[in-house]
Amino acid sequence: GAGVSQTPSNKVTEKGKYVELRCDPISGHTALYWYRQSLGQGPEFLIYFQGTGAADDSGLPNDRFFAVRPEGSVSTLKIQRTERGDSAVYLCASSRFQGTPLHFGNGTRLTVT
Amino acid sequence: QKEVEQNSGPLSVPEGAIASLNCTYSDRGSQSFFWYRQYSGKSPELIMSIYSNGDKEDGRFTAQLNKASQYVSLLIRDSQPSDSATYLCAVNIQGGGNKLTFGTGTQLKVEL
């Protein structure tokens, strides 16, 4: 079946603006994860959903970041008052159940100017 | 100390040789270990998972886990230029819920 889908693939925004990044997981996968990856680094955990609820949001850097998954499928990562330091590739991953391997989407490259 | 550590490389090996990639982790209670391959500009792709001590083989890839030494490795036999990529070690840290913690990755270059 189709893999994890992320839109947009690229997003350029001005400092201070609001952005939304969308993730459509693999059908039937109950767990959904958001990671952020900067150049030369490994993916950094942001938040994890099991179903509709955020099971672990300990990786969100501050209150400008928020994510939702209202129907237990598609998720949106929302960033308010963007800063240049938010520039990175935002990766979404899903897994069939808790503890099973993660499958990543192609990411959204966010550039804040 | 970082939770998951890898040598950033680059690790250069000639075509046909064995590439050995290493990873150490800090939490002794960790249970699940994964290797991901990431080509430049692409997303990570799962290539191996390992959960118990010893070796696990899949084609040209062998993952090795030693929980006593808190060490996991990936061997790539008969390395090909198409294996050139960054290899990310990921660990499910005990007490970390179900999230994976990644190392910074090791860049592998397979030279003709």
Q: What profile does the largest beta sheet of chain B have?
A: 6 strands, mixed
Structural class by secondary-structure content of chain B:
mainly beta
Number of strands of chain A: 11
Shape of chain A: globular
Strand % of chain B is: over 45%
Helices and strands of chain A: which structural class? Answer: mainly beta
Helix segment count of chain B? 0
Distance between the termini of chain A: 37 Å
| Oligomeric description of these chains | heterodimer
Give the chain pair forming the largest contact, with residue counts. A-B, 24 and 23 residues
Q: Give the tally of β-strands of chain B.
A: 11
Describe the structure.
- The complex is a heterodimer of chains A (113) and B (112).
- Chain A has no helices and eleven strands.
- Chain A has 113 residues and is an all-beta fold.
- In chain A, the strands form two sheets. In chain A, strands 2, 4, 5, 6, 9, 10 and 11 form a seven-stranded mixed sheet that branches.
- In chain A, strand 5 and strand 6 form a beta hairpin.
- Chain A is globular.
- Chain B is 0% helix and 53% strand.
- In chain B, the strands form two sheets. In chain B, strands 2, 4, 5, 9, 10 and 11 form a six-stranded mixed sheet that branches. A five-stranded antiparallel sheet of chain B has the order 1-3-8-7-6, with no helix packed on it.
- With 112 residues, chain B is mainly beta.
- The termini of chain B are far apart.
- Chain B has no helices and eleven strands.
- In chain B, strand 9 and strand 10 form a beta hairpin.
- At the A-B interface, strand 4, strand 5 and strand 10 of A face strand 4, strand 5, strand 9 and strand 10 of B.
What keyword list fits this structure?
heterodimer, A: 113 residues, mainly beta, four-stranded antiparallel sheet, B: six-stranded mixed sheet, five-stranded antiparallel sheet, globular
